[in-house]
Amino acid sequence: MNKFINQLENKITIPDEHWYKSTKSDKWLPSVTTLLDAYPKGAAYVLWLKNVGMNASQILKEAGDIGSNVHSAIDQYVKTGQLKFLNDEGRELWKWEEWELICKAMEFFERYKPDVIVHEFSFASEELGYGGTIDMVCQINGQNWIIDYKSGNGIYESHYLQISAYKKAWEKLNPQYPIYKLGLLHLKAATRKEVEGSIQGKGWKVEEAENPESDFEYFQYCQKLWHRANPKAAPKILEYPLSFSK
Fold first, then answer.
1. What is the C-alpha to C-alpha distance for residues 214 and 65, in angstroms, rounded to an integer?
2. Euclidean distance between CA atoms 58 and 200, whole angstroms
3. pLDDT of residue 237
4. What is the number of alpha carbons within 13 Å of residue 1 lying toward its C-beta?
């Protein structure tokens, strides 16, 4: 969650999580994933909605919560070098289905030892017209990667468009670290073992983007479509005081 604390005005501002604030002009920019709402969901998604009916929102929320917790766990590991399933009192810190995914991510980190350049990097680019949070920029075998974590059942075309948009923004902001590879760390892959030439293990795989430049062109189409459908879109912003006194 993005939070903006202003002690002089005694307030904390919390925008909609799908928007990012430019530091240049205080302009609010939609996130990459918000813009990708314009990408067609496909027949399989429509069929899924019909099958689950009114439970769709709850299912998506639960999946989102799991994804957020897995991201938090990986971030904790990268920044502290430690991660535990139980706290000091012996209580579980993570749901079991979360820990299964976390263990797969840990296998990736332990086996391939990515040299992390930055983790959970948030940005807002007025030039490009969007913001976002990149899960990880790292080096693997001497090559700079952007890697995005995916804890859902599948990898979809929109995911490749997402990381292509991250690449474009990252290289404008950090040209000293050009990106050579884009990957999606899929933690629910159908893989059964490690395969030479691929970054994968049992139940997980880094799916590499094959055509980032083409993917970015399609992302820009989505960006235009989204703005056409949402010409007056703006974030919902909540403001609260930082303190109270009589």
1. 31
2. 31
3. 73
4. 11
Cβ atoms of 122 and 155 within 8 Å: the answer is: no
Running along the chain, 246 residues long, what does each successive block of 10 average in pLDDT? 63 72 86 95 73 74 88 96 94 95 97 96 95 96 97 94 98 96 97 89 96 98 97 82 84
- Which helix (H) or strand (E) element contains residue 62? helix 56-80
Domain coordinates of the chain in residue numbers?
Answer: 8-241
Instruction: Provide the pairing of β-strand 181-186 with 143-150.
Output: parallel
Q: Specify which residues 131 forms β-bridges with.
A: 31, 124
How far apart, in Å, are the Cα atoms of 97 and each of 67, 68, 226?
A: 11, 13, 34
Architecture of domain 8-241: 3-Layer(aba) Sandwich (3.40)
Instruction: Count other C-beta atoms under 10 Å from residue 241's C-beta.
Output: 10
H/E element holding 48?
helix 43-52
Query: Which residue's structure tokens are 């099958």?
Result: 51
> From the DSSP assignment, how many helices (H) and strands (E) are in the chain?
6, 11
**Strand pairing of 130-140 and 143-150?**
antiparallel
Cα 83 from Cα 94, distance rounded (Å): 11
Q: Which residues contact 184 (CB under 8 A, 6 or more apart)?
A: 147, 148, 149, 150, 155, 159, 160, 163, 206, 207, 209
